[in-house]
Structures are given as C-alpha cells and as structure tokens.
Amino acid sequence: MYYHIFDCVFGEMLVAGDDEGLRYVNLQVPQKSFRIKEEWIRDKEAAADVSEQLNGYFAGELKTFDLTLTPGGTEFQKRLWKALLHIPYGETASYRDIACSIGNPLASRAVGMANSRNPIQIIIPCHRVIGSNGTLTGYAHGLEIKSRLLDLEAKSI
User: Hey, which bits of the chain come out as E strands?
Assistant: First the structure.
C-alpha cells in the first residue's frame, strides 16, 4: 500500500491506495488521525493524481472526481458509500433519503453508522448527508469542517 500526506486548507490530508485503487482519504486532525501501518510505503508520485484532484476540489475548481475507489467494508457499507457518490456536488441528502435510495427506508441509523465509517472522505461525500430536518449532524472531523465543506461547494456552484 502506498500513502502520501499533503497540506490542504483543513490541515494535513492522508491518501493511501494500492494497485487496485484508492483505499483511504483522511483529514489528519487530532480527534480522527489515521495511523499509518509500518508496511506502507510513502510514495508521492503514486498519490499525485489523488492529491491533485483533492487540491482542485478545495480550490472550488473540481466538482467530480475521476478515481478508482476500493474502500474496504461490509457489503452494506459499500452499497451505502456507492449511493453517497450520487449526491450531486453542492447538494445534500438526509439519512432517510439515502436509506430509501438503497431500498431500506427504515435503515436511517444503519446509514448513519456506515456513513461514519467512510474510509474515503470527501471523495465519497459523507459530508453531504444531513438530518431529515435539514440540520447538520455528526461528522467524523466535527461539524465545523462539515459546514466548511458544504460552504465551499455552495460557493463554487
């Protein structure tokens, strides 16, 4: 597995993947820092496309990522993360909306749990999921960052 850490508007961002595709994107903040495994290899070149696209996103210039994603997780989690990719840039959906989109309207809580375990943050836009009443709800890196991500997208539409 390769990895690279680069600076972005929110601090340090870790990206990691392998020959199959991108496996992790994580904002390295104190409350949710990702531990790099000893066997991983630091490789800026292997991560160049990912970091370039993320920087384009943070600059408000990129609205759609073109990357091969290979998140690890349960079948339910993978199905949910795939559904999140259909939330358009600059828009939001509720946990219930997402539960309905995967064919299980009573699974809002399960959607929330799977959403919180998203290993490819920002690219799989878990920040676009909000409460049914329109309020911002949990985000692994805090509601301030979630709000800033949504504001970034709103300003770039």
Answer: 2-8, 11-18, 21-27, 41-42, 93-94, 129-130
pTM for the full model? 0.93
Which member of 114, 126, 140, 150 is catalytic?
126
Q: Which residues fall within 8 angstroms of residue 16, CB to CB, at 6 or more apart?
A: 1, 2, 3, 4, 22, 23, 24, 36, 40, 47
Write down the pLDDT at residue 35: 81
Low-confidence ranges of the chain (pLDDT < 50): none
- Indicate whether 103 belongs to any domain: yes
Distance of CA 140 to the CA centre of its chain: 10
Residues 6+ apart with CB under 8 A from 38: none
The count of C-alpha atoms lying within 13 angstroms of the C-alpha of 37, restricted to the half-sphere facing its C-beta, is: 7
Whether 126 is catalytic? yes
- Could you list the residue range(s) of the whole structural domain that residue 132 is in? 75-155
